[in-house]
Amino acid sequence: MRKRNIFLLCAIAFLQGMVFYSAVATLYRQAAGLGIFEITAIEGASVALSMVLEVPWGWAADRIGYRRTMIICDLLFLATKIIFWKAGSFMGFLAERLLLAVVISGLSGVDSAMLYLSSQGSDAQRNEGICRAAGEAGLLLSGLSYTVFLSGQYRRAALWTAIAYVLAAALTFMLTEVRPESPGEKHPRLLSLAKEHFRLPGMLPLVVCSAVFCETVHCVTVYFGQLQYLRCGMGPRAVGAAFLAVSAAGLCGPLSGRMTRRWGKRLFGQALLLLSALCVTVLAMTRRAMLSVFFIVLLSALSALFVPLAWTAENDLVASDDRATALSFNAMAGDSLAVLLDLGLGRAADASLPAAFGLCGMACLMSFGLFSRVFRRAG
Question: According to the model, what pLDDT value does residue 25 have?
Fold first, then answer.
């Protein structure tokens, strides 16, 4: 039954990755009459609400069960895509994004706990890599489908996205609960649970390490990378090809478990973080297009290999039966750090792109130091 859970979670990730309008999401909203300020204001409100709801959702999931929580959230996820398909005003897109915040905060921690508890020991990291790769594959396939079949047809792309989410929601009903209800089970208070959770040896450094590294890579591959391509004089077609290459590099996550077993958690993680620091340092110094694309693609691959390792390590350290709540604490702390990091790196990029890459290199080295501290005694 648990193996079926893993298959279903990967299939759900694939289908929910199929956002056919992802490449033109901003243009979609602009075509409906929204300005850039309105779009960013909606995004800011969504992020804020998601952070507020993160822990309450985890607390609720540990009481009503992970399967029920995922069913509720995936049905609401479907609702967001239907609203987006039909939205034609500021209020429509605001409603979609606020509801999405409810969904994201609800799934955060729950899908992770479901996958971890459905896995067996060393298989957890491999399964996380496969599941993340499935989501990337869905995104890549939908992007190619939009380019070939739906180019310029914004509303139809949104409709096909909603159809994919109908299938994902249907699969959620087939999941098996992995956290059976225990009559009379006592749950600690949130404040006490948070204190106990972050007092666990290695937990806080690992959360900070993961948050700093993942957000740094996100900034480089999604935002700064495009600026680097323009800095190198690349044209639209070359930029599009680079985007596909970076997306494809995210599919190497399933190799993370095998490589970790070969090299050990500490050595493999350290190598990934040091190589990432090297990548962004080179980007700060070069204006060569091919070299820039190569190192951004490599950075995407390194991140895809690191995330399952860090994810498994966080889950291994969790000591409470209230796993969803504990992982929600991690997510909230990580999101808070990501917001601050985005502001700092964004301001640096406005002043100088090479300087921003330099700060990204320092962030990777900081993550290396924190990771080394966590795994000082690990093999």
Answer: 85
Domain extents for the chain? 2-179, 192-374
Instruction: Determine the CATH number of domain 2-179.
Output: 1.20.1250.20
Torsion of CA 140, 143, 147, 150, to 10 degrees: 140
Rg from Cα positions in the chain: 20
Q: Tell me, yes or no, if the pTM score tops 0.85.
A: yes
- Position 20 scores a pLDDT of 93
State pLDDT tens for residues 143-187: 889 888 898 899 999 999 999 999 999 999 999 998 756 555 566
Q: Identify the segments of the chain with pLDDT beneath 50.
A: 378-379
The arrangement of secondary structure in 192-374, i.e. its CATH architecture, is Up-down Bundle (1.20)
Taking alpha carbons only, the member of 304, 328, 305, 303 closest to residue 315 is 328
Query: What pLDDT sits at residue 30?
Result: 87
pLDDT at 379: 44
Say if 2-179 and 192-374 have the same CATH topology.
yes
Mapped to the 3 state alphabet, what secondary structure does the chain carry? CHHHHHHHHHHHHHHHHCCCCHHHHHHHHHHCCCCHHHHHHHHHHHHHHHHHHHHHHHHHHHHHCHHHHHHHHHHHHHHHHHHHHHCCCHHHHHHHHHHHHHHHHHHCCHHHHHHHHHCCCCHHHHHHHHHHHHHHHHHHHHHHHHHHHHCCCHHHHHHHHHHHHHHHHHHHCCCCCCCCCCCCCCCCCHHHHHHHHHCCCCHHHHHHHHHHHHHHHHHHHHHHHHHHHHHCCCCHHHHHHHHHHHHHHHHHHHHHHHHHHHHCHHHHHHHHHHHHHHHHHHHHHCCCHHHHHHHHHHHHHHHHHHHHHHHHHHHHHCCCCCHHHHHHHHHHHHHHHHHHHHHHHHHHHHHCHHHHHHHHHHHHHHHHHHHHHHCCCCC
- 1-11 pLDDT, tens digit per residue, is 678 999 999 99
Token pair, residue 44, equals 């800011």
pLDDT at 186: 64
